[in-house]
Amino acid sequence: MNPAGTAALRVRDLTVTFTGGGREVHAVRNVDLDVARGEFVALLGESGSGKSVTARAVMGLTDEYTRVSAAELVVAGTDLLTLSEEERRLMRGERMSLVLQDALSALNPVMTIGNQIGELFRVHRGATRKQARAAAIELLGLVGIPAPANRVDDYPHQFSGGMRQRILIAMAIALEPEMLIADEPTTALDVTVQAQILDLLGRLRDQLGMGILLITHDLGVVMEVADRLAVMYAGRIVERGDADTVLDLPAHPYTQALLRSVPDAAARGHDLLTIPGSPPSPAQTPPGCSFNPRCQMAIDICRTERPPLRVVAEGRASACHRSEELLHELVS
Amino acid sequence: MNSSADGVDASRAGAAATLVPERRVVLEATDLRRTFTGGSRLRPTHVSAVHGVSLTLHAGETLGIVGESGCGKSTLARMLVGLEKPDGGTLRYHGTDVTRGRAADRRLLRTGVQMIFQDPYTSLDPRMNVGDIIAEPMAATRSAPAAARRARVAELLGLVGLAPDMMSRYPHQFSGGQRQRIGIARALALDPDVLVCDEAVSALDVSVQAQVINLLADLQKRLGVAILFIAHDLSVVRHIADRVGVMYLGRIAEEGDTEVVYDRPAHPYTQALLSATPSHSRADRGKLSRRRVLGGEPPSPVNPPAGCRFNPRCWLATDECRTEQPPLRALALREVACHHAEQALAEAVV
């Protein structure tokens, strides 16, 4: 184990380019991310903003048509850029893991749950079949599957959606990784089950002290669990900071508009505030600030010059030419 | 047909008390039931998807239906538009019984009740252009001559906020939000009295979702159409619905005005559901840890429990709940199907 205080995840200047189809699409550009140990960081964005691509690039789950470059990619003190493919494979599951959104397609339908979880212990820890099975039962109990000793020999289709998601989480935490990336872990689930999963993640974070990067588009989930927050738009991080401050006083017009477009009890009977248009495709981002065609505050400079992500206040950064105005307008 | 009418009279009487008298009843469902049969021939399994649901939809109002997956929301929606034939109960459209689904019934329902589907990517035919998609209901019912359809399509596109010259484009050229607008324009083509929206905004991004919600509210104001809005997202339903019904395993657990149900829920299930919904305000952080935790998994509608269908997960359950199915009864401005609603209301933690 690494000494406390080391970052669980440190990413600098991550760029992901898709090269398939004879053209280059920049899905993620110049992303910096930090997750401390025991910290819950949310990566918020709409579909197509590059959230999931970021997660896969960090994990090293990329195909031949994906080019990943980064200045720094460090998980719990280990520099991933210097590792061989094989060494990275060994790190996955052991020290960093990923929970995918669609639990049914992420599990092997012809293998029992016990074997799938046990495989981790047998491959990474050299456990015997018997030990692996016992460890699998213990894990199933930990994530709240009732009667784990009876369910361990069941197949994925015999479980409900919420249970499958919990099995995926069980697999992700099996070897007590230092970094857990959860890609929309609750999106397909009902609210009562979602609350259970969020509870479970929070408890595991406290018990095991791992860093969690939660990728989501659901503001309600972010409000509930995030310590820190990064907002992505069109492949870039547009705002980053402490969740309380960002959600309270957003410094980027996109974050602000997003917060206002959520149905709220107080606004009943009135029209919701909307963001005109729809998110741009990563293949065709507008010149200047990517958000400018949809932004109510856009001025001439926004259409020509892309604002860099810079520190606007203590512990928070925003990529907008008019962040200061936005902040002060809101404060006054 | 009327064999089950006795059990319903009590709940109807309760509903009558809360009705706004001047509003016309457009669609009225009484004790609708639908059971699917699956499994092998020798050992068939019965899925009781909708089990005795009654609801009334008045002209120009929005009724929200919320519930978790598998509670029968979509089956209910499909029965209301005539895509699914009920096994029992009656469905009346403007007072005419259309339950049996004869050709004349279907014709009547189709001109009056239209559906907006969940997934705007699969509910539009990719090989038809937008003009043909929107004109199809008119072509199918022969309600307008071919020449008049184009003008009507242009009008409908304008109504949902799209440019009329988009008529000759194909669905793949549109974004998710625009496609959902096309689906709405198609549903409005026959000038229906009722729109049934089955999870109509849940596939859309937050920023686009708000546009479609506003559009629906605006259309309702302008056209006076009644909306049945089915969703699992409680905050969206709270925003759009005048009245809301909470479904659990094929039955209505609680129904009433939106404010009443959301602010002072009387059914234990409604309380648990609301307390598990993340708040959209940072001040309420930690709300989930104070939530009412439900034991067990959501039960499946295959072999639902006897008595109250919520009893295995309910913290107030008594022997009465395990044997006797609670009827929907009036209590404090809403209708609730629970033997212990008074106690639940008094102890409410939400």
The percentage of residues in β strands of chain A lies in 15-25%
Number of H- or I-type helical stretches of chain A? 13
Largest interface: which pair? A-B, 44 and 48 residues
Shape category of chain A:
globular
What are the secondary-structure elements of chain B, in order, as H or E?
HEEEHEEHEHHHEHEHEEHHHEEH
Please give the number of β-strands of chain A: 13
Helix content of chain A: 25-40%
Strand order of the largest sheet of chain A: 7-8-9-3-10-11-13-12
Task: Show unreliable segments of chain B.
Answer: 1-20
**Gap from first CA to last CA of chain A:** 47 Å
Structural overview:
- With 332 residues, chain A is of the alpha/beta class.
- In chain A, the strands form two sheets. Chain A has an eight-stranded mixed sheet with strand order 7-8-9-3-10-11-13-12, sandwiched between helices. In chain A, strands 1, 2, 4, 5 and 6 form a five-stranded antiparallel sheet that branches.
- In chain A, helix 4 crosses helix 5 and helix 5 packs across helix 7.
- The longest helix of chain A is centred in the middle third of the chain and has 18 residues.
- Chain B has 350 residues and is of the alpha/beta class.
- Chain B is built from twelve helices and twelve strands.
- The N terminus of chain B is likely disordered.
- Chain B has an eight-stranded mixed sheet with strand order 6-7-8-3-9-10-12-11, sandwiched between helices. In chain B, strands 2-1-4-5 form a four-stranded antiparallel sheet, sandwiched between helices.
- In chain B, helix 4 packs across helix 5 and helix 5 packs across helix 6.
